[in-house]
């Protein structure tokens, strides 16, 4: 387009100057569109990296007092946007993902250790045994103690 404008331009020739202006306007429009597409691509790469870091923090920090809103704010994206994007990418909300991580960890601890239920609850990120027992029973249909007894009998059969 630069070469086309250079070839067309003749000082003082109104018709040619009009054609050159047309070429410049097209060039500016294409540059604008290319820059905007680059911004979108950069934003998509940014959200991909933010989601990866967000998920990694959930994966490694599930045993602590994780605040999903605070983690989302650390990414630089709004918590609502992170929740929606996480859900779209992983098929569940960050809260559901965190609950699943904690549940899976609790199942392993109950099944393969003899740790006290209180210790299992704490190692899975629950504030107290009551909260842990309630969440576990809601998901599994058995209390943690009942689950442990039932899994003990299946380990030795």
From TrEMBL:
UniProt cross-references to SUPFAM superfamilies, sorted A to Z: Homeodomain-like
Key word Transcription regulation present: yes
InterPro entries: AraC_XylS_family_regulators, Homeodomain-like_sf, HTH_AraC, Tscrpt_reg_AraC-type_HTH
Record bears the keyword Lyase: no
Source superkingdom: Bacteria
Entries under Pfam families matching the protein: HTH_18 (PF12833)
Keywords (A to Z) from UniProt: DNA-binding, Transcription, Transcription regulation
Sequence ranges assigned to domain HTH araC/xylS-type in this UniProt record: 52-150
Annotated PANTHER family: HTH-TYPE TRANSCRIPTIONAL ACTIVATOR RHAS, HTH-TYPE TRANSCRIPTIONAL ACTIVATOR RHAS-RELATED
Protein name, per record: Helix-turn-helix transcriptional regulator
Species this chain originates from: Paenibacillus terricola
């Amino acid at each position: 387009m630069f070469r086309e404008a250079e070839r067309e331009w003749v000082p003082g020739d109104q018709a040619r100057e009009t054609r050159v202006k047309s070429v410049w306007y097209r060039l500016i429009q294409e540059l604008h569109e290319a820059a905007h597409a680059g911004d979108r691509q950069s934003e998509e790469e940014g959200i991909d990296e933010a989601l990866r870091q967000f998920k990694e923090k959930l994966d490694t920090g599930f045993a602590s007092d994780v605040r999903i809103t605070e983690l989302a704010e650390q990414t630089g994206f709004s918590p609502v946007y992170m929740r929606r994007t996480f859900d779209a990418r992983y098929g569940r909300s960050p809260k559901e993902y965190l609950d699943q991580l904690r549940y899976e960890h609790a199942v392993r601890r109950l099944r393969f250790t003899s740790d006290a239920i209180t210790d299992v609850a704490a190692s899975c990120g629950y504030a107290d045994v009551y909260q842990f027992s309630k969440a576990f029973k809601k998901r599994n249909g058995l209390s943690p103690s009942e689950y442990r007894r039932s899994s003990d009998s299946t380990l030795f059969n």
